[in-house]
Batch of 2 targets.
Target 1
Amino acid sequence: MSPRPGFVLEVDRSTPPTLFWHGEGFRLEKLPVGSRVIYPPEPLAGIKDPRSAIREALDNPTGDSAPLSALLKPNMRVAVCFDDVSLPLPQMQAPDVRQLIIEEVLERLAQAGVEDIRLIAALALHRRMTDSELEHALGKRVYEAAKSAEILTQHDAEDKENLLFIGKTDRGEEVELNKYAATSDLIIYVNINLVSMDGGHKSVATGLASYRSLRHHHNVKTMVHSKSFMDRDNSELHSSNWRMGKLIKDSGIKIYQIETTLNTNTFPSQFAFLQKREWEWGLKDRASFLAVSESLKFTPPWAARKIFQNVKSPYGLTGVHAGEVEAVHRKTLENVYKQQQVDVTGQTDILTIGLPFIGPYNVNSIMNPILVHCLGLGYFFNMYKGAPLVRKGGVVILSHPNRPEFDPTFHPSYIDFFDQVLPESTDPLVIEKKFEERFATDPWYIHLYRHGHAYHGVHPFYMWYWGAHALDHLGGVIILGGDPKTTRRLGYQSASTMADALEIASSIVGRDPSVTHLHSPPLLMANVH
Amino acid sequence: MKALTVEAKLRKFALAKVLSMTPSTSSVKYGPLTLTDSEPKRPPNNDWISAKPRLSGICGSDIATVLGSSSRYFEPLTSFPFVPGHEVVADVTLDNGLASRVVLEPALHCATRGLPPCRMCQVGETNRCESILLGEIKKGIQTGYCSSTGGGWSQEFLAHRSQIHSIPESMSDKDAVMVEPFACALHSALRIDLGTINRVAVLGSGTIGLLTTAALRSLSPNIEIVAVAKYTTQKAAAKALGADQVIEPSVFNKASRRSSASMRAGSWQSHGFDVTFDCVGRSESITQSISATAPGGKVILAGMPGTSKVDLAPLWHREIELIGSYAYGSEYASEATQDLLKSSSVAIDGSGKFRTFDLAIALCEKLSLGNLVTHTFSLDNYEEAINLAAQAGARGAIKVAFDPRKKRAREQENR
């Protein structure tokens, strides 16, 4: 039976309560009659033989590109760059698709007699991956071989000696990249496209760039004008990256792009109920839900976090394309939309979203309040094409515990951002103007980014800007079940029950509002007509 | 005449101290302060004059005294029984028979004692007077700690003519009662060369902290001021008085590290604020101030400290200067203060100095510092007044003052 497409349910009296993610837990909420619930499409079938599909893609490139083997010569220098730990979410069950691709790429490099190779984790300003994370992404064999040969590196956006200024785009945007990669004869970029924001020129122009370069598109103005940043053709974030991509290409840097797409088979069998529509839950699903949710009630947050962070997704590969960046990316987007897109008619007054335990920036870590903001108002709010799911001046209700907890190793500058910046202002423009540069150039954060596993000092600012379009668009944000004091710090209102949240929202949008729930993850992208 | 009087009863001091360490609010009741009714003191000679307080502030040092928690260092410098109250705006009748509103400069220096000026008074540093044990009046560093003069927490006390300063008609009593503590804050700010520093922290946003912020902003419009405030009212006031940033006490050292782009290891950090004003005066705040200050920087003790336990290794290693700041006297008119002194019409003497108190009088009205007086009480209600002042921040108060003219029945008009 072929997987069913996404679906918009209208809640009636017989509709069972709707499952909301709530951090490392869940809530069952009875939504008002007439509310809509948007369910994601069921997972597409994964490719049965991923290794063959990869070989096929490398030999039959997309767009104006020769097959990989034809591009390789002995004595050339090749940088094999790959997406970091922020993708996919949760991490996929071994073998990771990056491992499969890189094994095949290394095989071909060896066949061609290429010896000057470096593997580079394209971190941008993300934290350095830990050894175990690298091993998981690359597989034990590649990891150990590359490590012992000292060819496994992670992009360091603060290593001034290893950055190369490429030039400026026609809009004056500076492009500064990893020098080793930029001076290689070929960059082979290995991507995982979990959402439509990923990939394309963003892979190199962002993943291998420095703050000097990133600040031209990671800023409030760009984010407010990216409607949405998940929609490449209407995203100023992507337009900027594409201009940079053109400059990179024109400067003679050769990129062989390999992009992959995954289905939405996100959760292993013990969490199967998370991928089903509530009224279709069988006895086993109900039992699993009760067992999980009841046991979580007695589990301290740190332990629940550990349980969930150990979840590895049984994703299936739905596509792999290789060759010229833009042509490859067009194919990729087709695949992403095919898996995630759901047609929705009309906007809503109130959008409800349950936020899960994980986002791109807290893998093996804590979803701190800044990341709650980013995940809710950045990622989920922007999962649309056409128009936002919620109308201008509408309200978003986010369900999450929103505890004032931080990981001091991964997120040190987030702590200072929360303690010292947000009490001053929550306005992205004010924050950007008054605080960004100091955080970005702070030598302590730079030290921790370079030598520890810390996100760059400027990173919490980007997370805040990620929500700038939503903040500009919305009339209010309510966090359901969140720590009230922390919620106030973010500039939002808090509610302990859904009834209270809807009551507060009504005071903003008016009586008898329309309500829509985004039933995700698994991920979905609303195509709003 | 009603007056609140502190008597030398050690048991009462001890009881107040013990009770003040508990949640009990009875430490004032059982402490050394009592409401007395007696004949007013008569001026001993024409140099002294009777003053009838309109408002008299409750200072941190007063609270420490009546709760038995101030340093015993002051015991031999005080004469009992005494009437506290040194932040005073009062009515006096001048020689010409005209009534005048005045503020009190409370230091009991050589001139008030009928003595020729000591080495300190000669150079205008009356806060450092060497004669506080000598002369025509009993010992005491200020009005409010001397049994000969009485003090502001009464319906009448004695002021030496050299202590009183007439104030303009336009100046409200609330602005006027802030003159004395503001002079202390100006002196603290002037303990450093403001022309050479960029970033300062003010740790604590009680009255002294807020006034220090106001003083720094008045004296140096371009300096970056980070104020540390715990309570909502304090945060709003610090911002209104010119702090560039207001932060919670719990993040003070992190903010110091971040704002100075320092490296860090344990309590060591490579840089910090150029100057930190400790307006709390506790072991923890002094420790924090030392850590948060840049190597070679200065920590000004603006809040009255007591016996403290502080690890001085960071002070030694990072060559921090720990500087006391008590009251005020005369200040050098530096280049940085010239414009302000000129616009405030403050006189500069032949040695290039001006009186701190003169500048405080000139600025208090301009800065509307009377807004910081959040509560006034009659003398009868002294227990409630002092309990509120002791927990001012937590209870939304800033400066609490006595209005000795007020009757208990009129307390409803407090706010």
Target 2
Amino acid sequence: MRPALEATGLGVRYRRSWALRDCSLAVPAGRVAALVGPNGAGKTTLMHAAVGLLRPARGSVRVAGEAAFVAQDKPLYDGFTVAETLAFGRRMNTRWDGDAAADRLARLGIPLDRKAGGLSGGQRAQVAITLALARRPDLLVLDEPLANLDPLARHDVMRAIMAEVAERELTVLLSSHVVSDLEETCDWLVVLNDGRLQVSGDIEDLLAGHLVLTGPADTPSPAGVSVVGESRTGRQAGLLVRGGPVPDPRWRARRASLEELVMGYLRSPASAALPGLAGVGA
Amino acid sequence: MIWVTWRQHRAQILLTAGFLAVLGVLLLGSAVEARLYVAGHAPPGCPGPAVACAELEVALGRRYDAVYSVFGWMPLVLPALIGAFWGAPLLGREYERGTHRLAWTQSVPVWRWLAVKLSVLAGAVVAGGLLLSLMVSLWRPVFRAGIDSSFGNIGVFNMVGVAPAAWWLYAFALGTLAGAVFRRTLPAMALVVAGVAATMAALFGLSDHYAEPARAELTGTVVLDDVDARLVRAAWVEPSGREVADPAGSGCPLRADAGRSSRNAEAWQECLFAKGYRYAMYYHPPSRFWRFQWTEAGILLLASAAFGGLAVHRTLRRPG
């Protein structure tokens, strides 16, 4: 099956510095992919390249079908009413489900005659996402959809996206620098660090394939696994390893949490886990 | 896309249309009033060259000047306003508000968004400029039968013919490019105002070279009988036929005039003419009106196309 989003050797340059280097990844259709990494890692750059706002300097990025994008600051025309914003979407797109959009906004209690500039942060995000969903996209790209939202609005936005995913074949790529936002909703993980791709793969597989080891500081590194990162504090050593099991009884092993996995890779920029590439049809 | 263009730019479109409507009413009212005045006060045979018509001419001139003082600033200010409020925000405001990431990620491709917006708005701007020109051209003859100044007066020249449309389009294209470069509205507006003023000064200086000036040799007077001509330069011609800037070797004494009197200068000129000197004037006759109109419009049109092309190129190269 064709991946919903595929990047091959993607490189994007701003003036002299590379925002994204040699990035190859594929997100299978129907997945909710989390794009994580520290600020300035290249998350926004990757998304902009995917939706055509940037021309890559190297390589290519391909979307199967239509992509809809919601930028980080949820841009809307402040002078337009919500109804006019929907009219804008209808006239700017070939596919358009106006009834679904109107239903959604009615359920959310967002009045159609309100100016977009007068909406609250949560309402603004909902209108922006409604506009994107009404296009019936194959890929929905959301740049920090939860930033600047209160906990209740965060929950509502996530629920709205999940409901749409459950209803039809839709692939979602959403970025965040808060991993805990993504734990319950995403099933694919992409980690970017300093413009390089570190991790891309199924979250279940990644969690099953990694172990957190703890033991005395002088324990030699275990054989048969590859160490992603390690931290030694005083007499204690903690390792994130790929592979296993570890026969050495001095190491106590347990499954890594998503947060530990992401942090382990981000702390060791030289490590990479890109199992997803072999698995999905290139 | 047309609806989107209208919805986003209707304020400018309506304001410009409203301004043109108000101006039209003003010009129409002024013309009707002048016609009624002529019908009621003109001696038989006026307006015309007869001496009896002088009084009527003065009265009409007063009316003309009253309205002209209202729109004498228009040749410079209107293009600047068009550039600042039609051109500069077109891309500058989208970038400034981040809405370019909304507009340019819909199914309509960026090049089509640009093509529709640029062509619709440029068309409206050109139509507005032509309408202004038409109104001014219909209004002026009511006052100025027989005494035309649409060629010699650069201000009037830029408000008739195709000049307003060309200037408006030029300012619009310059504003659009400035918005694409600065990605902000205010600096783009400032650049448009400065750019239009600089271009107007530059083209004013250049316009002498639109054609080879005509030459006339005058004796007995230093004033061309065609008041609407554009004077390029003048020189004295010695009896031998040599042109000199300063006829110092003529033996005619030139004494400085006191105050506003020009008696001494006139005496000097008479002396020169008596000794066989002639006065050569290089000028553009008003018959070159359309040639100059189209030359200026051509320059502005080429520049507009270049600016528009650059703005499109810049936008498409990096839309985000």
